[in-house]
Amino acid sequence: MATPGVDYLDFDSLLSEEQRLVRDTVRGWVEERVLPVIEEAAWEGRFPRELVPEMAEMQLFGATISEYGLPGLDNAAYGLMMQELERGDSGLRSFVSVQSALVMYPIFTFGSKEQKDRWIPALAKAQAIGCFGLTEPDFGSNPGGMRTVARKNGDSYVLNGAKAWITNGSIADVAVVWAKLEGTIRGFLVEKGTRGYSTFEHKGKMSLRASVTSQLAFEDCRIPAENILSGVQGLKGPLSCLTQARYGIAWGALGSAMATYQAALDYAKSRKQWRDRPIASHQLVQERLAWMITEITKGQLLAWRLAKMKDEGTMRPHHVSMAKRNNVWVARECAKLARETLGANGVVNEYPVFRHLANIESVYTYEGTHDIHTLVIGEAVTGVPAYNPPME
Ligand SMILES: Cc1cc2nc3c(=O)[nH]c(=O)nc-3n(C[C@H](O)[C@H](O)[C@H](O)COP(=O)(O)OP(=O)(O)OC[C@H]3O[C@@H](n4cnc5c(N)ncnc54)[C@H](O)[C@@H]3O)c2cc1C
Predict the structure, then answer these.
(1) If the chain, 392 residues long, is cut into consecutive pieces of 10 residues, what is the mean pLDDT of each piece?
(2) CB neighbours (10 Å) of residue 125?
(3) 134 — phi, psi (to 5°)?
(4) How far apart (Å, rounded) are the C-alpha atoms in residues 29 and 103?
């Protein structure tokens, strides 16, 4: 296989033939189609949209759904898919996470039959692109404070407000928008081109440069009443979508860590300093590699256990918090250690390391920051929520 696996404890032996096939198919595609273009795309700040139809062809969108002719993959196979995409680029994995976990999942789970029939096949085939609008300029970690509102008016809803940092925002045909209706958070489907709905791209991003991130604005934006997601009310609507996406990130981050580990290992074995010996012969360099492979291996086992629990229906949001928090942190540390190992070559885009290093900063912050997941775990073990301590 072109891209080497990172497998210290024979993790492969845990996988079924189908899971290996899914992983190897996505790995091969990333190797052949993504790696040759991603560095330049990131440099130019361009989302490689030309790859989207190929991802649809491979049935990467909504892959755990088993209706509408979709593959109904198990959760480990889905996770491995995310791992391989993020081994390529976190922005590419973000695109698939948003389309699948944040757009298809809520429409499939909370939408009407008409909404599902209309959007699930189109999103699966990438005839439509979706985005998920929860964060606002003033409300990130605390989305319950959102100011975007919906008002019922005859057979329409009228939306007013703004969303910020929305992946795929400007290229989306449909936005899943969370807004307060008479004080309760509800989900709405807003189509591109609707009067009163506009998007603006966030410029100047140093991270996830091969991904589109946008603001969404709603000014007396009138949508048909049937565009509400009728199956859910309250913050649990968006949070249940985030649980799906965070699950995928727990696996995806391992892909980023594997890419930077592999780059560091290859470099350490070939780079010579001091009497023509490879830098891999130095204890300090080996210590870094040993740390990386140990943490990646622990992260794989965490993700694997989570997949089993998700299949069995016993996975809870605080379990996902542990895996997202840990595995993204591991990827962030691996990127730093790999960058150090590459010396000056660690800061140029001839190698993938700095791109991963920059990307993982966004992944560390989005879908619940590292701090917020710490607090979720803290609440799970103590029973005491510590998100918003009262002011003196
Ligand atoms: C590239 C990118 C893509 C994104 N895509 C999407 C998307 O598609 N859809 C979407 O809705 N959002 C998206 N986001 C937004 C993302 O989810 C938010 O940025 C994230 O939730 C953090 O919110 P914030 O940036 O407002 O930070 P803040 O909430 O202001 O946090 C700032 C700092 O304060 C800390 N903090 C906050 N509250 C607490 C607390 N109670 N205790 C301790 N520390 C705390 C945080 O951990 C952080 O370190 C994206 C963000 C980025 C960067």
Answers:
(1) 76 96 97 97 97 98 97 97 98 98 98 98 98 97 96 97 98 98 98 98 96 98 98 96 97 98 97 93 97 98 98 97 98 98 97 98 97 97 88 65
(2) 15
(3) -120, -55
(4) 24
pLDDT at residue 1, as a whole number: 46
Which residue has the CA at smallest separation from atom 27 of ligand 1?
Answer: 140
Angstrom distance (rounded) from CA 256 to CA 334 = 9
Instruction: Tell me how far the alpha carbon of residue 368 lies from the centroid of ligand 1, in angstroms.
Output: 6
| Structure token digits, residue 108 | 């499939």
DSSP class of 62: T
Residues linked to residue 214 through DSSP beta bridges, in sequence order: 166, 201
135 lines ligand 1 (CB under 6 A): yes
**Separation of 206 CA from ligand 1 center, angstroms?**
16
Quote the tokens at residue 218: 């709603």
Q: Which atom of ligand 1 is nearest to the CA of 102?
A: 8
Q: How far apart are CA 359 and CA 370, in angstroms?
A: 15
